[in-house]
Amino acid sequence: CLVMISARTGAFLTDRACCIRTTDGGRSFQFVGWVVPPSDPYRAVMPSTVRGADGALVTAARRREAGTQRCWIDVYRSSDGGRTWALAGKVGDTGAGNGNPPALARLADGRLCCVYGERDTCRMLARYSADEGATWSEVLLLRDDFHRDVYGDADMGYPRLVLRDDGQLLAIYYWATHALPQQHIAATIWEP
To answer: Taking the complete model, does pTM exceed 0.85, yes or no?
Structure first.
């Protein structure tokens, strides 16, 4: 079993995504490879990974430039079981204040779908890629009625994404609205 995790290599914002493997049901793990090496100057965490028809791995990762508020999602590809990775493309910006992680799914027609929260505009967004993450479609707005409570501590985003048996996509994420100001789990279902 391959497992995609994040590991901190030093101080805050030095986290990097990597691939590990277990061959004994999780009793032990072996390091396979860094998605983004520790020498990369930008944070790369919370990977979401799918496998292609050709067996290659495609992962989307939350990125942040230390010392700034610049945050985005990049996509990487590995053709050797997670040992080495190459940048495939950029999904989009995720807003200031630490950004937001991605959720990635492969559709029945082979396209990728990536869902993420955008903090500056408080929206949940989706984009599609027909070329393994190199380029991405225009943004699809999933939701934009987020409401920060009076204390400003309601969080948003951190999605999970699955392709249902009926072909529809289901995105689940943190959310808060004027009617339900307490942070809660919400969902959007749509036809890709």
So the answer is: yes
Give the whole-angstrom CA distance, residue 107 versus residue 117. 20
Residues 87, 36 contacting (CB under 8 angstroms): no
pLDDT tens digits for range 65-80: 877 889 999 999 999 9
pLDDT digits (tens, 9 = 90+) for 4-18: 999 887 777 778 999
Alpha-carbon Rg for the chain, nearest whole angstrom, is 17
How many CB atoms sit inside 10 A of residue 16's CB?
A: 23
Strand 184-190 relative to strand 157-163: parallel, antiparallel, unpaired? unpaired
Please state, in angstroms and rounded to a whole number, the distance separating the CA atoms of residues 119 and 157.
8
> What is the SS3 string spanning the chain?
CEEEEEEECCCCCCEEEEEEECCCCCCCCEEEEECCCCCCCEEEEEEEEEECCCCCEEEEEEEEECCCCCEEEEEEEECCCCCCCEEEEEEEECCCCCCCCEEEEECCCCCEEEEEEECCCCEEEEEEECCCCCCCCCCEEEECCCCCCCCCCCCCEEEEEEECCCCCEEEEEEECCCCCCCCEEEEEEECC
Q: What one-letter code names the amino acid at 8?
A: R
Residue type, 49: T
